[in-house]
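Record type: monomer structure entry
Structure origin: computed from sequence
Chain ID: A
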Amino acid sequence: MWQAMGNVAPLVVEKGRLFIAIYNDQGRSSKLWKKIKQAYCAAPEPLRMAVLLLAFARLWGPTTVRDLLKGQPAATWHNYGRLGGRGMSPWRDVVDWVGGYPFEVAKPEEIFDFYRDRGFCLDQLRTCAGGLGCNQFVFQKK
């Protein structure tokens, strides 16, 4: 990840912009997800389904219960494409999330420092509030 970020920096012209989204470093949770992704990718095909089902329960269990308590079973599941805008079904999204390896993360300040040291100014930042997902950055080259 760091090498790729370094590789794109010299490609940006003066006053040009660089848009980047990097998975948020959540500490222990990020380390756990990395181990899950490694296990999934290294597992034989029959065991991959077991890993997916466990991850699916973790990722969708609370949402499913919440929908049931609201009296709207599977509402989030049915509206997922419209709400998330990711263009994937909920199941495909779980497969993508669990199997997406290599998996690297960073804290917002690490990304900021990295590009500041290469002559960029932070123009915009959208964080995932310390949670799961990507922090999104827009940098401008000085």
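Annotation 1: The longest strand covers residues 134-141.
Annotation 2: Residues 28-104 form one domain.
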